[in-house]
Amino acid sequence: MLKPAVLKHRRTTLERVEKFISEIYFTDCNLRGRWQTCWFKVDLSIPREWTGKEVHLLWESEGEGMIWRDGQPVQGLTREGEKTSYILTDNLKETDPHSLTLYVELACNGLFGAGKGSMIAPPDPDKKFSLQKAELVVFNRDVHELLVDFEILLDMAKLLGEENQRSFQALYTANRMVNLCDVANPSTFAAVHELACSVFGQKNGESQHVIHAMGHCHIDSAWLWPYDETIRKCARSWVTVIRLMEKNPEFTFVCSQAQQFEWVKNWYPGLYSTIQKFAKEGRFIPVGGTWVEMDGNLPSGESMVRQFLQGQRFFQQEFGKLCLEFWLPDTFGYSAQLPQVMNGCGIHRFLTQKLSWNLVNTFPHNTFVWEGIDGSQVLAHFPPADSYGLAGCVEEMLKTVKNNRDRGRVNHSAALFGFGDGGGGPTQKILDRLRRMKDTDGLPRVQMSTPDRLFTALEKEKAQLCTWVGELFLELHNGTYTTHGQIKKGNRECERLLHDVEVLSSFALAQKSSFQYPSAKLQHLWRLLLLNQFHDVLPGSCIQLVAEDAMRYYSGMNLPWPLREASRGPAPHILVVNTLPWKRTEVIPKAGPGGSKTLGANSFLNLPLQVDGSVIMKNGLVRVCLDTLGRVTSLCLMQPERESVPEGCCANQFVIFDDVPLYWDAWDVMDYHLETRKTVAHLLKPLEIIQPGGLRGSVTFSLQISEKSVLTQEVILDAACPHVRFQTQVRYACNLLWKLFPLLNTPIPVYVL
């Protein structure tokens, strides 16, 4: 057998290798690709003279990392999240092993992805990640404690104000500590620390505001990084939480999104078992009750219910309990139907903070009763510090009290601490700060708590709270209702498809008892759909790589297999099923002799082109009049006759606006854009009848938007169809084609069994 010549085509082979290591070309799939990990084998030899010392591995790199020891992840690493060391031993003993091997998994991305120059930016193909420091060091715990002491006292002196006695006490104590501390003589450190404790030990009065501090690590299931990277982010963040819990018995941590728990269960089973152990102790606390932290407006009502169904089912099976609170701190607004959905799923508590981002109107409450469209009510709480990623500083705790807009009604509020969005979570320094503010006179009382303790305290004052009725509207990110339209179209089509498959599977089972209802398959597909409803995916505020992942998931959901199963073998009759709750008048073709289709005489339509170039489309149900620019001058329901376009007005009128927002250009549309409205009226290609009638009539035309852009639209009316469809394409000069999908005008299938 002949073997092919390895270098038969020298040029292509050379360029193939060059591209594989290129910093410019194909960086998404070559050796320099983002979202890849590399491994370091780290052999350590600890000096014998360090006996009795606390020994750390110090690791500083631009990419996120994770340390593995004995085949298990043991510590997350991220410079941005202030996690740059791993404790090898608290107190090195003579009998301890002084030589060991660790492995560090290092990612080609930071805490906020791999963008250029800005935290919120798409991946930069030229970005490089380097390792700056890898050292074996002795950690001086006494100096660390003194640094935190000085930080808290100095913040009290600065922030409590000159009119406050405690400000002066903190300042003078810090000054005495400086006098007493001899940096060259560590034996003085203990006495200096005792001076600080004398201030922290002076207790608060009973009336002081109580802050319920909870560890938190908001991890976007996808955003500036793809889904696969999120799996690693969860492991890095949560294994660090476990290490902190082992050293801080009072530490509690709340964690939402059942999908992320499932990821860790599948990919890091050892870590997951440890998480379950701490969950039983009530310290690693699942919250939220949903599959992901979904968008609060775009999913259908059924999808909202399925978020809770799948989330609560997972938490019940894996942790033996249901979540009591809905946890959605970062989505872009909240539908008025949510209280009803929550109540129906056994949840009567709600936490978010996103409305603190409002541009114009400050939301008037932090703790209130939220009432939905049907009168359902939930107790809502917005942490007054306006963040879910606090650093545990004095300033943040004082802000929590000052910002509380319901003072006098309630005396409790939440403080969620830990690096978030890209993961990271709490640090030891944050815990050390909060410990000093546990019950210190002059500061709010900060106690490590749980969601249940917080809401139980708030519920005692529920009778005094105000009620907000209706939607919780976010005055920001309204551009996300059009960004990445293909994701939104895919979501709606798959919602409808899963609904139809469930209905038809039930009919199939009723017809044939041998039919296997596809429960497992349906759950898998629902969970994929629910994942894509995450609040940075469905709104389109994610990078292109995430959008591609989302579309790939949608593409795998287009086969209504129960139809095939149910139709096997001879059928005595045809069952036509309307899977939607309203009456429909579509014509269902039935195969006649020789496979021909037959329709009633009233089902046909025709499209006469008028003398002036306008078109009238009608099919016995609706009549549509298009003028020479393709605008709808009349849209009339014929039986009974009802016009939907007011006289003198028109629909389907394209307009353009300047889109230069204050912050994120793909997310925001500012109010001042309304001042820049321009109609698109340059007809490039006049109305042309593409399909003249019969079962379908369609008209197409093109408008010139600018020197670089052309809009082409096809208007379609089918026989016996009660709606008209518009398919619109915008083509740019660079030949990129963008499709605008009208979500409400996509055809709804009628299945035949």
UniProtKB/TrEMBL annotation:
This is Mannosidase alpha class 2C member 1. The keyword tRNA-binding does not apply. Gene3D superfamilies: Glycoside hydrolase 38, N terminal domain, Glycoside hydrolase family 38, central domain, Golgi alpha-mannosidase II, domain 4. One of its GO terms (molecular function) is metal ion binding. Keywords: Glycosidase, Hydrolase, Metal-binding. It comes from Podarcis muralis (Wall lizard). It comes from the Eukaryota. Belongs to the glycosyl hydrolase 38 family. InterPro entries: Ams1-like_N, Gal_mutarotase_sf_dom, Glyco_hydro/deAcase_b/a-brl, Glyco_hydro_38_C, Glyco_hydro_38_cen, Glyco_hydro_38_cen_sf, Glyco_hydro_38_N, Glyco_hydro_38_N_sf. Residues 475-554 form the Glycoside hydrolase family 38 central domain. GO terms for biological process: mannose metabolic process; oligosaccharide catabolic process.
